[in-house]
Model the fold of this input.
Amino acid sequence: MSPKRRAVGRPRSEPGRDLKADILRISLELLDEGGLAALSMREVARRAGCTHQAPYHYFADRESILADLITGGFQDLATALREANDMSADSGVRAAVAASGRAYVQFAVTHASVFRLMFRPELCDETRHPDVRAAGRAAQAELERLTSIVFGSRANAALAALLWSEVHGLSCLLVDGPLATRFSDPRARDQHLGEVIDAFCDMVLHSGLGSGQPGRTA
Done:
């Protein structure tokens, strides 16, 4: 009697293996190595050592893999920004601004492949993947919270964009721009990041833009 054929779409993996986690890990490796062009369901399956149909057991298509990675990216970013914002209660506004800026840029540099995906809406239809929208809004809420911490009752969308532009622009320069090659040494990059963040804090908090609450900017 011939052996039973494996059901289409069923993962071929050893007991206890988290194939979904492996698929996401391998997808990140492919993005690191060759960008979006390198990521395909077939190549993920090949590297995972499973049937070509096995990834479809967890993800409907490549976009669904991207959606999972993007959602996780925004969730991690929101957590990092929340922790930075929480510093304002005990350490003051300047500490919160500096910590938030560092958290944003460090996330971008450390998770460059995901960062490149997160702000490209054409890659992921949010109507198909509502978790992406929810995670993005959570990160946005922390940016708006920081804006209120810094500017108080004068906080608005323009000032939020000012804060965001600084850290996002610096992130892009360090990830894919000219600063990526200029500061290939992590120590030199971190030193430069600190200098830029300090200068930005000075510009915002000592130019009349900030809330100017006594004892809050130290």
Observations:
- Residues 19-57 form a domain with the Arc Repressor Mutant, subunit A fold (CATH 1.10.10).
